[in-house]
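INTERNAL TRANSFER SHEET
From: sequence group
To: structure group
Subject: GNAT family N-acetyltransferase

Please process the attached sequence and return the structure record in the designated field. Keep the field labels unchanged so the import script can parse them.
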Amino acid sequence: MSTPGGAPELVVRLVEPGEHDAVARLTVEAYRADGQLEASPEYAEVLADVAGRAAAAEVLVAVRDGVCLGAVTFTLPGGDFAEVSKPGEGEFRTLAVDPAAQRQGVARALVQACIDRAAELGCAALVICVRHDNDGAHALYGGFGFARDPSLDWSPVPGVELLGFRLPLPVLTRPVLAGPILAQ
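Return from structure group:
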């Protein structure tokens, strides 16, 4: 499908098992290109374990013309990949865009998908932690209305300082789901 201007449409959906390797490569490449693996190179193993994330959370991919251009992990509190979310909140992490596809709206589409998913599940807020020096991500999230929440700040390893951001969401009348987020 194409957009009105004729460009192929960007689609965000759950990752498929056959895409795990491609998503692992683009995620590690994006983090490496951005300098985010310098203080903690072993984090590349976590980033490359797309199958593990997909088994415990929702890994969303942004795809255009059958090519994965970006990915993000969405989770609820208590999950294996939740770091800072509290009951009633959604959380996302490992947002990555293939360096060759940056500045094409891929990150925006993935963040919007996380916002939509959190709202769909009845979450009161969506949270994210970002490296203190990642000004581009700070601006991206700020554009969606995320605000700094210092109560979420933490450091997973020496030299890596993460700043917390929170986006309040309209509370729906249905409760937040517990347990697995989506069956694949």
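Handover comment: The longest strand covers residues 67-75. The first helix runs from residue 20 to 33.
Transfer complete.
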